[in-house]
Each structure stands twice: as C-alpha cells, then as structure tokens.
Design goal:
Layout lengths: L2 H29 L3 H25 L7 H19 L1
Length: 86
C-alpha cells in the first residue's frame, strides 16, 4: 500500500465521518422542538391552568369565618411557627 492510497483512505474516512455527523445533527434538530414551540406549549398549558383555577374559584362557596374560627386559625399558625423556629 502506498502513502497516496493511505491518505485517500484517511480522507474518505474523515469525509464519511463528517457527512454522518452533519446528517445526525440535522436529524436531531428535526426531533428537538424549537424555542418558539416550547414557549407556545408553555403558554397553552398556562392558559389552561388559569382557566381551571378561575372555574374552581367561581364554583367555590364562601362562608365567612366566625371570630372563634379566626382565633383558632391564628393560634394554630403561631404554634406551628413557634415549633419550627424554636
């Protein structure tokens, strides 16, 4: 085998590897979503969540708290806070 044959062989190996690398990059680019597609997807999910939250709030029936309920809740919050800070 001459030096010329070896350099041709090396060239073709490198060229084939380069073509494979470019082809793989192009294939992966098509699989991965673009930044715009990701942002659009996030916005759509966020919009659906907001609608669900609004519907839940609209269906909720509010009952005013009595003074004893307020005091009990405040006592529980303070006791829990004091337990975790001590």
């Amino acid at each position: 085998m001459t030096k010329l044959d070896k350099s041709k062989r090396d060239f073709f190996k490198k060229a084939a590897a380069g073509v494979g690398l470019v082809a793989a990059a192009g294939y992966l680019k098509n699989l991965a979503p673009t930044r715009g597609e990701l942002i659009q997807s996030i916005n759509e999910h966020s919009e659906k969540d907001v609608i669900k939250q609004k519907n839940a709030w609209l269906k909720k029936q509010w009952v005013p708290m009595t003074d004893s309920d307020k005091k009990q809740m405040l006592d529980e919050l303070l006791a829990n806070h004091n337990k975790h800070t001590a």
